[in-house]
Amino acid sequence: MMLKQTIYELLTEMGEDENENQILQFPDEDKSFTAKKLLECVNAAARGLLASGLKHGDRFAVCISNRSEWAILAVAASATGTIMVPINTSVRQNNLRYFLDKAGVKLIFYSWTYKHAKHQKLFSDLFSKNDNLNKVKSIVLDGNESDISESETLWKDFIDQDIHKLVNYEKNVDACWLVQFTSGTTGTPKGVKISQSSALNVAMAYCKATELDSHDTVLQVLPYFHCIGSVMGFLPTFIRPSKSIITSSFIPEQALQFLEKYHCTVMLGVPAIYLAMMRSTNFNSYSTSSLRVLGIGGAGCPSNYFDLISKSFPSSTVMCAYGLTEVSSMIPAPKLTDSYETRKNSVGRPIDGVQVKIAGDQLSGELLVKGFCVTEGYWENPQKTNKLIDTAGWLHTGDVASKERDNCYKIIGRNDDMIEKGGEKISPREIENALEKILTDRSVCVAGVEDDKYGEEIIAFIESRSGTEVQELVRDCSAIKNQLSQQIMSFEIPKFIAFIPSFPRSSSGKVKRNSLKELYINHKLIIEPLRDKLTM
């Protein structure tokens, strides 16, 4: 059964209950909220939005880390019918200007204390240099009254405005609630329209997949400004009352401390997060035995990392789901009862209410999606929307997948990442899988670079943190090449291996392949020939 309530209505029901259990806790702020207390704060913020001149359908932006104000404002948007625009806290000024202009933002929230007043300077410079943004009002979450400008208001004054009633409006759960800008790793960022209905029902599917209940304590380290954080990291508490421990940002040692201190049972992350925790010097001194579920999303999980994470968190069932911003972050998901091999080698089955198929009804090809989770489209970008969603309502994900046993799906890679070499279409993911079986403790990324002879040539990038590691890998090249030749076709073997201390990644954990290509082309990496040393 689909949820038909708004987020605000769900919280109101919870707030009317006499239950005094905490639902959200922000240790970095030393704040915690029962449903009743959160509802009081949401109502104050909702009145602040209306007093600031926002009406139904107007947009406000939030450029803050995982703070309590983010959660309050997200529900306040639901209460007032306004639209929230989450912005990455690492945003650059040109992108920030683009987001505010594109979404027609009337009000923006930010913190002066974020990273040593970085945002204070960022926003001050932005508004002083752009006359067209002068009408955007600013709410500063912290700071001194004597330091703020005429266009700025402190949070404490924002939530203490003289409006006694919330305006009733016709609630539409299918209307836009968030405009979530994509990371822009494949071009200009696009503003994805996300409705409350889509977000809540995807979050409910996540609750079912993890079997979340009132006994669970969830550790939330993913940033709210990404879809996976704002949907699966934030909303489940309102659907299956549980407790969430929210960190303002991800710090590996702190995450381990909170896991142990709060006896967390569920955690959602990307592979890079779990690997950083495992590499922490004191990893073995912390107890993670309370964990029963480790969810992996975002960038996908190489099989060698799945094994490593499962071994390092032995009390947990590790499961990989798949999604993208345009479908509110999750389409298929496995079951906790699925076998280890199924959870390792697939992203599970389509969630209830969603159809999934391979383009052209083939065994492998582009993954298409249809159902409640599909976005209405990109904000003020009909051309890109029409390219994304066809006339039959199928969303084209741009990801290549294969259908496996038991109606499960396996993600092979991005369509855009496929390598065209000498007339052959080659999947980087397949080569990465082969390399990861050989280099079990290394991060690997395969990409195609322009080549006069074949059109594109294959380069394997390997993360190596020291010169000693690089030397060892160079010595092992012949063995690596011979093992590769037993797993993949000869024309799929990379021409070169390029070594890099750490991969450039987006804030959601995705490797920036184009940045790797640029480093290779500009001779910024240590490169070792691979294919010409192959002994057949």
Number of domains as seen in the coordinates: 3
Going by CATH, the homologous superfamily of the largest domain would be: ANL, N-terminal domain
Distance between the first and last residues' Cα: 58 Å
Rough outline: globular
Mean pLDDT: 89
Indicate the CATH architecture of the largest domain. Answer: 3-Layer(aba) Sandwich
Largest sheet: 7 strands, mixed
Helix content: 25-40%
Number of E-state strands: 26
CATH class of the largest domain: Alpha Beta
Task: Give the C-alpha Rg.
Answer: 24 Å
Task: Give the helix tally.
Answer: 18
Strand content: 15-25%
Low-confidence regions:
none
Task: Please describe what this structure looks like.
- The protein is α/β, with parallel strands linked by helices and 536 residues long.
- It folds into three domains: 44-171, Rossmann fold (3-Layer(aba) Sandwich), CATH 3.40.50; 192-415, ANL, N-terminal domain (Rossmann fold, 3-Layer(aba) Sandwich); 418-533, GMP Synthetase, Chain A, domain 3 (2-Layer Sandwich), CATH 3.30.300.30.
- Helices cover 32% and strands 24% of the residues.
- It contains 18 helices and 26 strands.
- The strands form seven sheets. Strands 2-1-11-10-12-13-14 form a seven-stranded mixed β-sheet.
- Helix 5 (118-129) links the parallel strand 5 and strand 6 (137-140).
- The protein starts with 6 loop residues before the first helix and ends in a 7-residue tail after the last strand.
- The mean pLDDT is 89.
